[in-house]
């Protein structure tokens, strides 16, 4: 039984919030002390630290909240408004849930009683009792001493809890970040993660290595990264299992700036069964979930993959080196994922019932967040971000599909960011951007994608067959001439793609569907070594040269070796991917220092010159002190955009943005302003210059420029094909340049303003092998197995039909550096240092060259550790160069000794 609540009965708040914050301070302090301990004792404090965290640091906030919740203080009382007009208890009006108001000293009106009896009603409204909550989070603290109202308790109105769940998440993350010296909570079960892998590899794993490695990008051409090494073909098809993919990088519908930006992108894979709001095969980044089943926890990630983790007890974490991600379980039993760049994906409690728990929040080490509001059924309705960024999702489709995303300001929709249309089966058929343009369209058959089109009408088609019980793409073509046929041998783990030119790509892959070897369209062979964590440890190139890569226990790249045996090494900040030191083959070293939250504090170049960064609490640099001890200053708005910049001379530049976050005005140090007018999606329509001149631009639906009008009113027009490539450029005088492509999308002809045409031909590796110029000169090019140019042949055409020829031969070392250039006149030899900087060029004339007056000559070059040219020696003497710490040339000394 509960004491009946009446007019003027008191309400009270607990000290739960204060207790949580006090516990957080204690927990963070303990975590910091533990982190310092492991740093200072070279790891000897790890066991002690684990004990401290398990019973102290991690538990301190919850203990503080529990302690505070047991202590209450009066906060106000029940008001007359909404009380029963004709039912009195002890001579006072009875209080009613959903109707009666209360006054709280800590919160503004209106405040209503939220809880009430499940089966006792007064004037048709639930009766309120002592202990029932009001909407501000307080509870009714007093009631009748002799009238009791029965029934259960039901919450009729939403209650703002005294301790917001978001704050608990922030505290958990703060403690983990504070303990970064030991990479988070105790990993007592780390070894159990070995062998746990997703059913399919991340579609961008190879590209991630290419982006983080000096050597990979240098020695492997872009098409090979996605094709023969990544296992993709066309637009694209996954050759390891025949599925159709659309990657997030090409499917971004909008992006909103902020301290934690909202980047809205879609991912499609034909083999996915994720229950997406966009239909079968699609997944949005916010549709991630965790489910627990016995001893395992399964993540459905942003590519719809099922990623397994071993379940851990509260207060512990486990690291999955294959995915480079921690599963963290807080002292309160809540689950979150922690990436190596300290992004936390919070899911809350995950019961052991194999039911998916959706993502609730994404937060970084600085406390910037994306918060996801959902219905009781788990449907995402709103995303809010640091800086009062808010978007609302609308579902106006009979199957519950997402139909639009709107930007919200002050609880009002101010613009539509994206719209989605669907076919009769509820599959995504059309995407519209914030300009209102149709930017993507799709067709399906039997549940798989058969066509997709871009904003300009480029159509990509797919034909499917059922092979080994699953639909696979067997043919793919485009409206502009691309065409592929696919074959699969799943027992041998081998696939083939034949393109429109008859060239064949072959890939072999392992049980994890990672490519281990392949033959590219031009016949180049690659062999890939992969360790148990999915890291590429070796790459044998087509010329049999080898790149090797080493990783630490967290799968971070720590060393790479080129074909000459030269090494580049990396050191990292704590357990993150932030690099604190890079050492190059020439001995030069770049260093950086970060604070515990990952903010860059100091970077030091190879000569010891330092640049210092002073940052705000948001992690944004407000002061930059350069190597000459001069300072630059920056001011930022709430969306992490620079609004003012002051250079080292004290001159200011101001920047202004519209309500969409687009830059619309720049005011320089002379107080002159340039303004920009933009389309809703950001394309610049007009630039209004301070002198009154105006530039204007027009765009196609893909957001590409198709015309430019300069300040004099002169118009340059650009025609593009359905792929967005230029086909014709016409200047203000009507002079035009035309471009022509073959079915492999290679430029084969360029016609200039005088109607003269350059023609180009390519080999099967898409390398230029012939150029026919307008002056009747033909140039032919030859390459070695490494793809490096080794011969240039020039063939002229005289007035009398003669064809003079000139050949130049290029000798190269295993990494492609030019060692010698030879022709009929001379031989030139080249020498390099370990930084690949040219040290000397020595020319030796041939007998033919001597007769033509060619002389022997040697040029020598000297550099400092930053790679700056400091001395150039010629037969006429030496030039020397002096620089300041910012690499500005300060003195040029001539061979005569004169200084400039």
TrEMBL record:
Pfam family, one: DUF6531
UniProt KW keywords: Membrane, Repeat, Transmembrane, Transmembrane helix
UniProt name for this protein: Rhs family protein
Record CDD domains: PAAR_RHS
InterPro entries xrefs: DUF6531, PAAR_motif, prePAAR_DddA, RHS_repeat, T6SS_VgrG/RHS, TEN-like_YD-shell, YD
Transmembrane segments: 20-39, 46-64
Start and end residues of each DUF6531 domain: 234-309
Annotated Teneurin-like YD-shell domain residues: 650-784
Superkingdom field: Bacteria
The Double-stranded DNA deaminase toxin A prePAAR motif domain, residue ranges: 1-57
